[in-house]
Design goal:
single chain; mainly beta; Glucose Permease (Domain IIA); Immunoglobulin-like; about 10% helix; disordered N terminus
Amino acid sequence: MAPSLLLRTVLLVLALIAGGAARAEPRFEVPIACAVGSECFLQNYMDEDPGPGAQDYTCGPLSYEGHNGTDFRLRDLVAMARGMEVLAAAAGKVARVRDGMDDVNVRTIGIPALGGRDAGNAVVIDHGDGWETQYSHLRKGSVRVAPGDRVEAGQPLGLVGLSGRTEFPHVDFEVRKDGRHVDPFVGPGAPRACGGQRRPLWTEAAQAALAYQASGVLIAGFSAEPPEAERVRRGEQRLDVLSGDPAAIRFWVDAFGGRRGDTVAIGVTAPDGRTLTSAEAKLDRNLASMFLATETQRPAGGWRAGCYRGAVELRRDGRTVFKESRCLQRPD
């Protein structure tokens, strides 16, 4: 082989190697336009338990059997109604879309009514070299892209919704390589087991934004009548000011990430600091979602002016995981 031909061959091989390395793995940005940990929360991760049961990538319980995505959850349906954009996690070409399904809790209509369209309104993006991302449960009528469109990282695709097989407003973000699901917190090639070596597919900025949060409070407040979780999540049964002379008030909390053995304390104090209601319980199982409430009867002498403060605290292994309070004001 002539030296010039040999040199061209070597250069071609090097170019192919360099090109292959450049396309090996995409890097993903956060696929939702919210502050994770305050405006939205990571409710469920991909199930890394190879057998029955479910574990997230940290070996925690924020997953469920066979879950193949990452759920970015909004606080409630009020936040959904305001509108929260779902974003392309990386550049690519839109492969498939679906829109037109109603935003309704699957417990209301039943799974058979979905007709196999569990993802609800959704967008699938082809990133090349066998990589795809899917964005599911989008809001009806919100999808902004069509098959064949080129999109860039951070480009809005639609809004978070409640379509398909879901019970709360969120976007389920899935990553696939050659049709196989990949946990973006773990990376490709790793065996399905939590706690192992990881090569996350997130960008550096996304990794910082997606720090693991085991538990947290979504919403909390007061109501005059016994609260119902679904009504509270729709923005109903919320008491902003304590007026009139109700026989009782209720402090409620919607939280996530309870673990077996956790201690949950909830109570209400009067404007002068006296404890009016106090309760404490130990969880006997893992709870992905927790709706808690306590009732406070009208004190002797009636409701005095000032702040009636409801507080909740979750303790785990002797440490406080979260502690939050809300004030219900009684005008003078």
